[in-house]
Amino acid sequence: MDITNTNPGSNRRLRGGIVGGGRGAFIGAVHRIAVELDGQAQVVAGAMSSTAETARTSAEDWFLSRWYDDFETMAQQEAAREDGIDFVMIVTPNHLHAKAAKAFLRAGIHVMCEKPLAFTVEEAEELAAVARESRVLFGLTHTYTGYPAVREARQMVLDDELGEIRKVLVEYQQDWLMDAVEEDPEAKQAQWRVDPECAGISCCVGDIGSHAANLVEFVTGRNIASICADLTAFVPGRLLDDDANMLLRLQGGGKGTLTCSQVACGEENNLSLRVYGSKGGLEWHQQEPNTLIFKPAGQPWQYLRTSVSLKSVAAAEVTRTPGGHPEGYLEAFANLYRLFLADVRRFIDGTPPVGGYPSIDEGVHGMRFIARAVESSNANSSWVEV
Amino acid sequence: MDITNTNPGSNRRLRGGIVGGGRGAFIGAVHRIAVELDGQAQVVAGAMSSTAETARTSAEDWFLSRWYDDFETMAQQEAAREDGIDFVMIVTPNHLHAKAAKAFLRAGIHVMCEKPLAFTVEEAEELAAVARESRVLFGLTHTYTGYPAVREARQMVLDDELGEIRKVLVEYQQDWLMDAVEEDPEAKQAQWRVDPECAGISCCVGDIGSHAANLVEFVTGRNIASICADLTAFVPGRLLDDDANMLLRLQGGGKGTLTCSQVACGEENNLSLRVYGSKGGLEWHQQEPNTLIFKPAGQPWQYLRTSVSLKSVAAAEVTRTPGGHPEGYLEAFANLYRLFLADVRRFIDGTPPVGGYPSIDEGVHGMRFIARAVESSNANSSWVEV
Amino acid sequence: MDITNTNPGSNRRLRGGIVGGGRGAFIGAVHRIAVELDGQAQVVAGAMSSTAETARTSAEDWFLSRWYDDFETMAQQEAAREDGIDFVMIVTPNHLHAKAAKAFLRAGIHVMCEKPLAFTVEEAEELAAVARESRVLFGLTHTYTGYPAVREARQMVLDDELGEIRKVLVEYQQDWLMDAVEEDPEAKQAQWRVDPECAGISCCVGDIGSHAANLVEFVTGRNIASICADLTAFVPGRLLDDDANMLLRLQGGGKGTLTCSQVACGEENNLSLRVYGSKGGLEWHQQEPNTLIFKPAGQPWQYLRTSVSLKSVAAAEVTRTPGGHPEGYLEAFANLYRLFLADVRRFIDGTPPVGGYPSIDEGVHGMRFIARAVESSNANSSWVEV
Amino acid sequence: MDITNTNPGSNRRLRGGIVGGGRGAFIGAVHRIAVELDGQAQVVAGAMSSTAETARTSAEDWFLSRWYDDFETMAQQEAAREDGIDFVMIVTPNHLHAKAAKAFLRAGIHVMCEKPLAFTVEEAEELAAVARESRVLFGLTHTYTGYPAVREARQMVLDDELGEIRKVLVEYQQDWLMDAVEEDPEAKQAQWRVDPECAGISCCVGDIGSHAANLVEFVTGRNIASICADLTAFVPGRLLDDDANMLLRLQGGGKGTLTCSQVACGEENNLSLRVYGSKGGLEWHQQEPNTLIFKPAGQPWQYLRTSVSLKSVAAAEVTRTPGGHPEGYLEAFANLYRLFLADVRRFIDGTPPVGGYPSIDEGVHGMRFIARAVESSNANSSWVEV
Question: So where does this one cross the membrane (chains A, B, C, D) (predicted)?
Fold first, then answer.
């Protein structure tokens, strides 16, 4: 069945576009693998770089049918084609997210956007207004909520298996910025991450602390109400934080800590969560994502395992392999797209969307979290409401 | 760039076919994901079931362009098309592997085949002869050799980081056959696995013991020379083994044990390997595949990690994500296809193949291993040469 | 060689006394095992309970030669005997520590005291003055510093293997107070812990947070400079905290978090420490105490193991068994006594003490830490200097 | 209460003697710590070396009241004293176990003996006859059965929580003999272990394989019925095995493997056991002894923990610390003595012994296991009955 199939219905491979992700970028390839993993969609068009040559060669690497030098043109032309893209993936540096997303929303093309949603809270709120007005779908790739074990954890909280939530401990530790790697001219990733012009007001909290906060909120089903933050730039000369520690208070009474770092020597991508309630506890580590530790009060710890002992529908619908065949980061990413593409099909076929992937509201809230963390830290770690 | 592109060269998405893997089969979807993961190929045609209706609906599920009721027809017609498939994936039950493979080899279509290679040693040897004659490519999906950490382990042995190999301990434990699940009419997987007509002379050794043996041989670079085996069918009424224990002697002097089971209560897919040499030891667990434990003599254990501390080119060329973004079973599978597809491109472009994926020779050797294990067990666990 | 041996020198088993630890108490037996483990001392006298009957029966259980109804009498009479005790162990509830310790210090008998040192900062400072004046030995059982791996960690920091200390993450989680167990009339332990009259101004921070703080300070060799604390009593009706979260700033620039809880469902005695520096990281878990994880920059994690790969003299002098023969909590406790008894021998023989066990200064500092945590929490988590 | 107390009853510290364990020996100190740990006994006399000077200095190190140059004299003189020893601990090299044990048995003194019981099967059987005749108590220190988690495991099998036992996997890996360390004149331990004159017919199987076999039999409650063994001396010039692999068949139908090594590079003292039944599985690792993994069919793995979730009386009676305060090797050792000393008290007080520690029958069986392993290996790994 041809990818250019122009049947009115959704019974075909969906067509995707990409903005950003040209040669040298890591996250572009991840989005492509993720969106295509289940064979439900194919990326056919892209504006992968603002440099025309890179835009072309990157598109050729991926065997794309069409490429563009700029996303505005892409949005207009794709919207006009009968076999144009159904959705677009935005994977540029942070400062372009909102601009690119708006172009496609206004062209009536569904958007899946990398986090953080925008450059500032204001821009995020404005984008949210545009998205609401556009009436098309908008998703945000808070990847880590895509893991089956994380979805099970959320369901267990919803089912009151933990009781009253008392304590949450979340962390996200890396070490890739522990030295001044941004001084290497080749280190594009590091350069824009530590550059306030591209990354915004925060490096570490913006890039990974926001994932940690989102994970807490997703699993507990309650937002972080207020924070008391201490942000630091440990590497001399750095303008943005590369480390942060926070006290948390959740809506509804739980308390805890959030700690994140890009200078934690020896850590790769250690996102970990513990939740303690009055009836049970949970523990999950992203680096061994197929295990969810459940600690029911007065009983032995249970090691729940993807495909084997996760019980929820929410976990089952994002699981592909039998027990003991480990799934990883790419599958978690693909899970968000699986849910998003199902909504795209529903949209095409005129049925209401179901969701299940992070929404623009979470994106706006995430921007607020970043802004409030910086604010608290600047105010000598005073409590600040999110 | 269209999948029907008929350019003479390989600068396009390659076209794949599939035999077997219809609705209800697990491994078909795995092969599809694996072969398409890197965006280098697309499955376009299939003979996914011997039942015409299932063949059609399975193909439609996958948006295939063409489907067939039988693999003979498929081989001939695809070979005749200008935009026919470049390669085929054989994912039927064991007793059809050789027959299907031969059809495509004779049609000049490259083959990637599920293991075990064939139904008997004789059939395997005959298939190997056909493959040699055909001059096209033949690969075997001994999946577990696709993991970066396993490739690193092999390289470390080659680089003499372990010294003289003294002891190997390999195991593969599952529990999915611990009860008589084959009595459930829906349990197609279980039924053919325990049926001598479909599975051959062994269930447990054939299905998973052979993976364990292959893993030892791949990592140590030396074949199992002789075995002393004790096979058992623990579940009453079962005709084939569901458990086995073996003593091993390697070519070149190392010794060890291989133990496998499908009735090991609580085990999912626990394939684990330890190798001990005169200078160092190695340990790897498939269920946490991104860690390779290295035990250099007189020094602390080192936890080598995918993308971070694996040093070999062999590991690097099959790695997709940065450190701490776990890769799993599907990626390992995709790695074999990555190497196979690179050879398909080389073939198209007239350059010699490079290999790196399991070959038909390993397939024949694997069949011998299974036969010898049964023979030893029947001879009161006498030593038998492989 | 008889325990009543009155040779002037130290070439004999030393004689110990105990205050507190009567039937039903847990920690008394631990002290007895710990002090006697190396065969260097024997407990011969005790004032194990303020109830005469319990004092007698408890002493009989232990085959003590002498028992007393009150510690004042014990101090005086033991000091007067030729074969009197060389040292005393204070294991009462918190509010009696200082009173009992003073009685023995003034009688010229060496003291090993349970933590926290005293009931208030003032009382602690006063006791420190008495101790200084007495010129006899004073030790404090911050048990967890007794583990070989912890001593190695400290030495590694001293040897600059971690570089500049940037981040510390310490936690101490338990769940034994997650319900209102103090309402059970039999639960003596729980009752005094949550009673401000016996425990002081804090339950959780006083009991276990103080261990966590001491561990950070012991390993990093630098004191906690200031804290920003959020203490909570989660169980309704409780007057003292059963949970706390804190931001930390160390003297010399490191930052971090300390979190402790007695309501963390499923946790037993999870004291864990991570330290991240500019050159390396360290990780240690009390529940698996024989492993120290070292994370040198740019290299694989190393699992250092007691007796095998700990390199320091500090670790070696507190190790008893060969590699892989796990040592635990009782041995860690015994290690503090091993060092303390060596000083007692030195004292008897007229040579200067060497130390190595927690001193009264750490005890006073620990009391300040508890007081400042409460103060910060009461001031809406403001930064407070320790 | 004085250790020389000559009350007729048992209400006093019991008096122990030791044969062997002089300066430089590791295991002597372990026995002393173990027997004294609970304050129920004290070692007062010893024949710690066949060299008079070492016998004296070793005894002085331990503050013993009496020492002897030879165990015969010791047995006679201690039996004659009113305040003589109640029991003796035999910790010599293997070839002296039986001789020393007989001397004390004939003197009516209870014996706790290191394993293996004797030098040959014949000597073991003869010793068993002497022990039976003597009517005094005899225990054997198969240490690893002293762990609470191991006792829980045994009880779970007895309670049919595992169902029919199908598969056992036991291993004991070390690396201390991976080089020819016996060539170092200081390496007394290594020298006698590899010397057939002192160690007997086997090094690795005799020293540690026998522990592994005992552990399987203790936990499953069934003996090893037959074995198929492959013993190797990997280090050139060594006369006895330093490695072994075996197939096992248990009485009652279970099968499995036993593998042990003293040349497994990087292993410390890795004794591990897995048992798989028709209803559940168990897993235990001596190096992390406070966790017992339970794998009930169709449910998540449960991590049972010492003091917290071990349910049996058998575990509880050998547990000293609350949850999360790890117990280790010395405590496991002390547990055997705790049970043995309780029997000594019963004996003194005229009540029947209860047991619970390894008996002389297990000792004889263990000797047979060693002999049969060597026999099978010499017969080209034929099945041999134990």
Answer: none
The superfamily in CATH containing domain C14-136 is NAD(P)-binding Rossmann-like Domain (3.40.50.720)
Closest residue, chain B, to C304 (C-alpha): B300
End-to-end CA distance of chain D: 49
* Of C78, C80, C273, nearest in space to C172 by CA: C273
Rounded percentage of chain B residues whose pLDDT exceeds 90: 92
pLDDT of residue B9: 84
Q: Which two tokens stand for residue A291?
A: 């295990």
> How many contacts (CB atoms, under 8 Å) link A and D?
28
Confirm if D257 and D250 have CB atoms less than 8 A apart: no
Alpha helices in chain D (DSSP H): 27-36, 52-61, 71-80, 97-106, 121-134, 148-158, 188-193, 196-199, 204, 210-220, 313-316, 329-349, 360-378
The first and second tokens of residue D283, run together, are 């897993």
All CATH 3.30.360.10 domain ranges in chain B, comma separated: 147-322+365-385
- Cβ–Cβ under 8 Å, residues A114 and A284: no
Residues D223-238 have a mean pLDDT of 97
Report the residue from A300, A305, A308 with minimal CB separation from D302: A300
Confidence check on the interface: ipTM exceeds 0.85, yes or no: yes
Average the pLDDT over A1-29 and give the result. Answer: 86
Residue C131 pLDDT > 80: yes
- CATH entry, A146-324+365-385, from 3.30.360.10, 3.50.50.60, 3.90.1170.40, 3.40.30.10: 3.30.360.10
Burial class (CB in 10 A: 0-12, 13-18, 19+), D45: buried
Strand partners, C249: C226, C255
Name the residue facing B268 among A269, A308, A328 (closest C-beta).
Answer: A308
Rounded to a whole number of angstroms, the distance from the CA of B380 to the nearest CA of chain A is 33
The pTM of the full predicted model, rounded to 2 decimals, is: 0.97
Is pLDDT above 80 for A207? yes
Burial C284-309 (b: 16+ CB within 10 A, else e): bbbbbbbbbbbbebeebbbbbbbbbb
Mean pLDDT of chain B: 96
Write the class of the CATH domain D147-321+365-385.
alpha beta
Cβ–Cβ gap D33/C13 under 8 Å: no
What would the pLDDT profile of A155-176 be if each residue is shown by its tens digit?
A: 999 999 999 999 999 999 999 9
Where does chain B hold its CATH 3.40.50.720 domain(s)?
Answer: 14-136
- Picking from D290, D303, D312 by the largest number of A CB atoms within 10 A of its own CB, the best residue to mutate is D303
Q: Among C279-293, D183-197, D348-362, name the one with the lowest average pLDDT.
A: D183-197
Average pLDDT over residues B294-306: 98
Within a 10 A sphere around the Cβ of B261, how many other Cβ atoms?
31
**Within 10 A of A160 (CB to CB), how many other CB atoms are there?**
12
Of all residues in chain D, the one with the smallest CA distance to B274 is D264
- Residue A318 has a pLDDT of 96
| D97-136 confidence digits (pLDDT tens) | 999 999 999 999 999 999 999 999 999 999 999 999 999 9
- 10 Å CB burial of residue D106 (0-12, 13-18, 19+) is middle
Max Cα distance, chain A (Å): 63
**What is the predicted pLDDT for the residue at C192?**
87
Q: What pLDDT score does A103 carry?
A: 98
Q: How far is CA C99 from CA C94, C108, C369, D280, in A?
A: 10, 15, 21, 55
**CATH homologous superfamily for the domain B147-322+365-385:** Dihydrodipicolinate Reductase; domain 2 (3.30.360.10)
pLDDT (average), residues D86-93:
95
Extract long-range pairs of A48-56: CB within 8 Å, 24+ residues apart: A48/A18, A48/A19, A48/A20, A48/A21, A48/A22, A48/A23, A49/A20, A49/A22, A49/A23, A51/A22, A54/A22, A54/A23, A55/A22
